[in-house]
Give the backbone structure.
Amino acid sequence: MLSEACKNAIRAVVYLATHHDPAARCTVRQVASAIKGPEAFVAKVLQELSRSDLISASKGPNGGMYITSQQAKHTILDIIKAIDGLDAFKECGLGLPKCSAAHPCSVHDDYAVLRDNLLHKYKTTTIGALAKQVEEGATVLHR
């Protein structure tokens, strides 16, 4: 459902959120290494996240990426919107162009429930909450 770029974006943002000191900026190389993502790909995703004000970036010798406490309050859905958009939450589970409640595909009802539950989870889960899980060792950011 989510693109590889979006998955990398979520992991990158959560990684940045685990660094609470805004003075401790992270380089693209550090983020890519931490989430086991290709550096050039991660750089592009981070640039888009910065444009969307989901992360902060500064240039110069002490520059890098970081997240403010206000940015950590954004939800996972905010990241998805910035990278993939929300079309995946409207699509048919089988990819049919004209699937609807009036003319459903064979998985329409079950898929709609799963899709809506996932959408709710993304709407209600903050970046900070995921970062806390990583910090506590309950979850990981790479395979």
